[in-house]
Design goal:
The protein folds into two domains: about 10-220, Hypothetical protein, domain 2 (Endonuclease III, domain 1, Orthogonal Bundle), CATH 1.10.340.30; about 240-360, Alpha-Beta Complex (Nucleoside Triphosphate Pyrophosphohydrolase), CATH 3.90.79. About 40% of the residues lie in helices and about 10% in strands. The protein has 14 helices and eight strands.
Length: about 350
């Protein structure tokens, strides 16, 4: 329910633009461009990932794939090493597939309207609007997590933002804010300003209300409800899962297996994984090696969005080069190539502890 009876919609967008031009971010590597490809890449990378983490990945990715055509022409195996460590790997698969669709159906270029952009793989309404706003100045609202926080607090919108009724109200409010804004509104500054305000001032905890340009008419500030809005989702207990991972070393290589294209760590190279010690011992025996020689290492916990995975690594080194052929989907990867291999973050952490990948 919308509680703010005097939201001053006519001044809302203009206030955001004025603030962004004076206090917002202006030096991020994807700013100052109207190239939809570069804007799209940054928007996808920034989903569920902090700006500081994205910058390095963004620059390396662009260096290897400078345009839509080069990304579309690459194989998924070429793409994944440049995403490894960012998480949410479906984003990378959709990025690659979208580039191929653009080359096949759109002449290798992005369509201009957000409605058309939203039909592409992996691009939702808000991301499509951001691309169209930054690249072409299209007057379409965005609604990501930071923006939802700004709108719920300023306009006094109750309800869990992921629920359909609340989300629809948020979109209607965002559309109304643009409808009442000046016809000459700078859409790039407005769109960036909403993102900046949510990440720099209207933060999840300890919002900086004294320096917020919306403070004077903010419902949450007036009613001291910053800690209550947006309404929190009911927390569910995170399931716990266990697995054993085998680090099988032979000469100057270790055995890795490629994960299926979809699902957790889709398409990445990981350590062979087993449910229990019996399955792990059987795998060692199949290689003609003694399971008793395997050494258990310090475990770690990796937190996914929907469960926690307890990883127990086991190290086993063959006394001589293993000549048996790996199973389908497995390969011996030279240790000096691991740093360039598309590894899941926890696997890279395990191997880095053994082989100092970051120092190679």
């Amino acid at each position: 329910m919308l509680l703010n009876t005097d939201p001053r919609l006519d001044a809302f967008a203009g206030t955001i633009v004025d603030w962004q031009k004076r206090h917002g971010r202006h030096h991020l590597p994807w700013q100052g461009t109207r190239d939809p490809y570069k804007i799209w890449l940054s928007e996808i990378m920034l989903q569920q990932t902090q700006v500081a983490t994205v910058i390095g990945y963004y620059e390396r990715f662009l260096s290897r794939f400078p345009d839509i055509a080069s990304l579309a022409a690459a194989s998924q195996e070429d793409v994944m090493p440049y995403w490894a460590g960012l998480g949410y790997y479906a984003r990378a698969r959709n990025l690659h597939r979208c580039a191929q669709v653009l080359c096949r159906d759109w002449g290798g270029a992005f369509p201009e309207s957000s409605a058309d952009i939203a039909t592409l793989p992996g691009i939702g309404r808000s991301t499509a609007a951001a691309i169209a706003a930054f690249a072409h100045g299209e007057r379409s609202p965005i609604m990501d997590g930071n923006v939802k926080r700004v709108f719920t607090r300023y306009f006094g919108i109750e309800g869990v933002t992921s629920e359909r009724v609340t989300e629809q109200l948020l979109w209607r409010t965002a559309e109304a804010a643009l409808a009442d804004a000046d016809a000459a509104l700078d859409m790039a500054a407005y769109t960036q300003g909403l993102m900046d305000l949510g990440s720099q001032r209207c933060t999840r905890s300890s919002p900086d209300c004294p320096l917020c340009p919306l403070q004077a008419h903010c419902y949450a500030h007036a009613h001291s409800r910053q800690g209550e809005l947006p309404a929190p989702r009911k927390k569910k207990a995170s399931p716990e899962r266990q697995c054993k991972m085998l680090i099988l070393a032979s000469s100057d290589a270790i055995l890795l297996e490629q994960r299926p294209p979809s699902g957790i760590w889709g398409g990445l190279w990981s350590l062979p994984e087993y449910e229990d010690e019996r399955a792990l011992a059987t795998a060692c025996s199949n290689w003609g090696l003694s399971p008793e020689e395997a050494r258990k290492m310090a475990g770690l916990v990796h937190v996914f969005s929907h469960f926690r995975l307890h990883i127990e690594p086991w190290y086993l080194r063959a006394g001589a080069p293993v000549v048996a052929e790996p199973a389908p989907g497995q390969a011996w990867i030279p240790i000096n190539e691991l740093s360039a291999t598309a590894l899941p973050a926890p696997v890279k952490k395990i191997l880095d502890g053994l082989y100092c990948l970051t120092g190679r």
